[in-house]
Write a structure and sequence with these properties.
Elements (H helix, E strand, L loop, with lengths): L2 H4 L2 E3 L1 H8 L4 E4 L2 H6 L4 H15 L3 E8 L2 E4 L3 H10 L4 E3 L4 H7 L3 E3 L1 H11 L3 E3 L10 H4 L4 H8 L3 E4 L8 H10 L3 E5 L18 E3 L2 H13 L6 E4 L10 H17 L7 H12 L3 H25 L2
Parallel strand pairs: 1-4, 2-3, 2-7, 5-6, 7-8, 8-11, 9-10, 9-11
Antiparallel strand pairs: 3-4, 3-6
Helix pairs in contact: 4-5, 4-14, 7-9, 11-14, 12-13
Length: 308
């Protein structure tokens, strides 16, 4: 870890000890707390995800920026603080980190910012709901998530339920291919579509065990190949939504977003809220269950990495 980064980094004692001992640690984002869900479901979900990681044998490390400090490992009080403040907290990606740090401000970290900070701390596995990607209508908006560029440069495996279904899945996969980021399906040959277990798009590789994924991550590190890996974990079928229904809801929500002139960082929170509203809360429950499912798999992968 470079000293300049370390001077801005606060790693919780339990996590620091675990990393020194080579124990399994899983990084978690904080945007889901502040922007991804309403209060109090956001706090309840974050704490449940941390318990899931522990139950699977790893140490949870929720990441955020608080008072200008890069925090790796939050207390339950800090998670509640972010959950209560909600969207008032800055949604932080790579470009925001220097300003939040220099000004002593708070930030809820996106996938991109979370894996940057996780890599600074030496954490190799990160769990989230779905990754950002290429937005629908990109030929007009040029809206591409910073998550993709970060995956191309940061050595952290990202366990997710695929690309957020409000995005252009095909173009997102093309972008990841161009950047050399492998997309691995966990016990599936097709990329999950967030709320549903599968899309029509095939993954690059299939892995049926956490140990198989860990072996590929170790081989990658041994050869000095930079960049991350996407581990796509389907939502459990018991919690999945009907693909035709959710697609219609998404299209209606996107049309409303365009009429309202909503762009940039506000698009995903707006769409998720509208989808939850129009599915009577079923999409929110699906989101919660897929995040918990991803956290469990991430812990199993981190444990397999430790077993090397």
């Amino acid at each position: 870890m470079a000293q300049p980064a370390a001077s801005h980094l606060d790693i919780a004692d339990e996590i620091a000890r675990g990393l020194r001992k080579g124990e399994a640690v899983v990084a978690l984002e904080s945007t889901i707390v502040s922007h991804g869900m309403p209060y109090p479901e956001n706090v309840e979900t974050a704490l449940r995800v941390e318990r899931t990681v522990r139950d699977a044998g790893a140490i949870p490390a929720t990441i955020a920026i608080l008072g200008g400090r890069l925090k790796v490992g939050l207390s339950s009080e800090e998670i509640r603080y972010l959950g209560k403040r909600g969207p008032a907290v800055t949604k932080a990606s790579r470009r925001d980190i220097p300003f939040l740090v220099s000004r002593g401000e708070d930030g809820a970290t996106t996938v991109a910012a979370s894996i940057i900070i996780a890599a600074m701390a030496g954490i190799r596995v990160f769990a989230t709901g779905g990754i950002g990607g290429v937005h629908r209508g990109v030929t007009e908006t040029m809206d591409v998530s910073a998550d993709l560029e970060e995956l191309a440069r940061t050595d952290v495996a990202v366990v997710c339920a695929g690309v957020k279904s409000v995005l252009d899945i095909g173009r997102t996969l093309e972008y990841l291919e161009t950047k050399g980021v492998a997309v691995v399906g966990f016990r599936t040959d097709h990329l999950p579509a967030f709320y549903t277990p599968a899309s029509r798009f095939p993954v690059d590789y299939r892995a049926d065990t956490p140990a198989d994924i860990a072996a590929a991550l170790n081989a990658k590190r041994d050869m000095g190949l930079s960049g991350g890996m996407v581990v796509a974990n389907p939502i459990p079928s018991a919690h999945a939504l009907d693909d035709q229904e959710i697609e219609g809801v998404i299209e209606d929500a996107i049309a409303e977003m365009e009429r309202g002139g909503i762009t940039g960082k506000d698009t995903t929170p707006f769409l998720l809220a509208k989808i939850a509203e129009r599915t009577g809360g079923r999409s929110l429950q699906a989101n919660i269950e897929l995040v918990v499912n991803n956290a469990r798999l991430a812990a199993e992968i981190a444990t397999a990495l430790r077993a090397r």
